[in-house]
Amino acid sequence: MAMLPRLSFKQVNNVLFGLIVVINLYVIAAPLWPQVDYWWQSHHTDRQAQLAQLIHHPKPTAQPTTTQPNGLIIPAMLLQQPTL
Asked: Helix axis angle, 47-56 relative to 33-44, nearest 10°?
């Protein structure tokens, strides 16, 4: 039977320190993510044009409009959310 290598306290401390660093980076970056995501969508995609086209030129459907879900579309904010 093979013996498992023993971990020293220094190795355990290094792993725990690495976990602390990763968790702290997540806590710092998580509040900034929505702003980064909005900046990326507004500068590198044509999301605003897509939402404006969706408002001004809706796709014709054969079904009555009552079966379509209600939603809020604001192209300037890159927002498309269903309403309950």
From this structure: 70
| Mean pLDDT (the chain, rounded) | 83
Tokens of 56: 């001004």
Comparing CA positions, the residue from 76, 82, 79 lying closest to residue 34 is 79
Q: Strands, E, within the chain: which ranges?
A: 71-74, 79-82
Alpha carbons within 13 angstroms on the beta-carbon side of residue 32 total 6
What pLDDT digit, counting tens, does each position of 75-84 carry?
888 888 888 7
What does the pLDDT read at residue 77?
A: 83
Residues recorded for the chain: 84
Question: Minimal CA–CA distance to 82: which of 69, 66, 71?
Answer: 71
